[in-house]
User: Which sequence fits this backbone?
């Protein structure tokens, strides 16, 4: 990453971070909050490193489990879920987003 930072520091410290991880059980992705407990340290690391490159420490954090309806959904929730899936490629595939 250092070489990329030297040529274009903006590519490495985006304003959007997308987080997804393997579910630990069928019913819940993180039933013992193991992943959740790691999140504050990760957020502090991103904020500190964004500041090193002259960027504001603020950023948007997208967590798919919290941002999209999971499990059984009402018709309205199903529609919103499908609309959310439609833009997923941008949230995880755009070169300006840290995943």
Assistant:
């Amino acid at each position: 990453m250092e070489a990329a930072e030297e040529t274009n520091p903006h590519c490495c410290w985006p304003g959007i971070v997308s987080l997804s991880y393997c579910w630990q059980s069928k019913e819940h992705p993180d039933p013992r909050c193991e992943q959740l407990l790691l999140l504050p340290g990760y957020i502090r690391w991103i904020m500190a490193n964004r500041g090193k490159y002259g960027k504001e420490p603020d950023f948007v954090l997208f967590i798919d489990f919290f941002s999209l309806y999971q499990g059984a959904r009402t018709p309205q929730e199903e529609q919103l879920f499908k609309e959310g899936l439609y833009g997923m490629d941008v949230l995880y595939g755009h070169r300006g987003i840290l995943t």
